[in-house]
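Researcher: Next entry in the queue.
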Amino acid sequence: MINNKYLKKVPELRFKEFSGEWDTKPYGEIYKFYSTNSLSREKLNYQSGEVYNIHYGDIHKKFSTMFNLENENVPFINSDVDLSKIKEENYCQVGDLVIADASEDYIDIGKTIEIISLNGKKTLSGLHTFLARPNKEYVALGFVGYMLQNYTVRKQIMKIAQGTKVLSLSTGRLSNIILNLPQKPEQQKIASFLTTIDTKIKKLTKKVELQEQYKKGVMQKIFNQEIRFKKDDGSEFEEWKEKKLNQLLFEPKKRNFEKKFNKNDVLSVSGNFGIVNQIEFQGRSFAGASVDNYHIVEIDDIVYTKSPLKSNPYGIIKVNKHKAGIVSTLYAVYRPKENLNSIYLDYYFQLDDNTNRYLRPLVHKGAKNDMKINNSHVLSDFITIPEKEEQDKIVLFFIVLDEKIKQTKIQLAKIKEFKKGLLQRMFV
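Model: Structure for this entry, 428 residues:
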């Protein structure tokens, strides 16, 4: 029996040509479930095959809600896998939902894609998925994929998830979820409108990717001296010179003994975001009982974190661009000399290859992957670097480029937030 609180409602935001209350139906009345396979990644490849396979991990990480096979990187099933016993009805069809039935967190449990186009290609629903086929009398193509992102539905799905370390769903429990549906013309209008929003999101996402690829490519060419800047009068700068980092940086060795800073001023180093305030970035301070012995970090100081990361197994080097603070003694802090624009060095070490190439000969790793290197030894090797005036021009170039990328990301964040609001207000 349907709970009365779900009976016929209207959305907060609606196209003016539509009126009346939305109908309510259980998931299992609209969708029928079909068999899926349990093929592991070892049975899949991205090179060749006759049949594509939708793995639950790809639903969580990369597939668009409106799934068009031509626009997605979907693996094939290996040719040595016997598919002869699979019934035709168990192959995916346009309009089907493919649902991830397992997740490590509530946010992604039951994450769903709606198949918009298969371009005539054979496709199966794979490991840890449900394949749900609609009664097309009730739903228009593209509507349910968006509706299932609405919090009213997400909350119901989270409530029926079971498990401790890994959450799971069952088709029986999912069948009892209540879905609110308008008539098909209104569904079509909503789906079309949200598809337009998604198209803008995809374009901006692609723009960010291209801008970041361009930046990385230009960085490589600049630091390899394939691209050179000129002086304001059009003349050439001097050739770049090899210099030890101790000719460019020194260790100030200033500690927080005078209690100039407190736990609110503790900084951390992020590979993606640079030097950040712990409380502002992570919501809390991870400092010890006392911060009196912490290193003081001024603006333009360089901080080296001696913690291995996946892409930077020898640690990362960043400049403090924002405000002064303190870091634990696990970090090393350096200050630029007059012949260095420290932001130049930050850009130089944004390329993982440059960071790893410089640090690899200096760092000794212990049996537990711990890093052993004293602070002065970090400055003992060479880099090839231009004179200060050319450093300044390179830094200005990248600051302008970063600002363009930042503005595109702001546009992207705004339209994503706009879509989030629409998903809450356009559905019941």
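Model: Confidence is low (pLDDT under 50) at residues 1-7.
Researcher: Noted, moving on.
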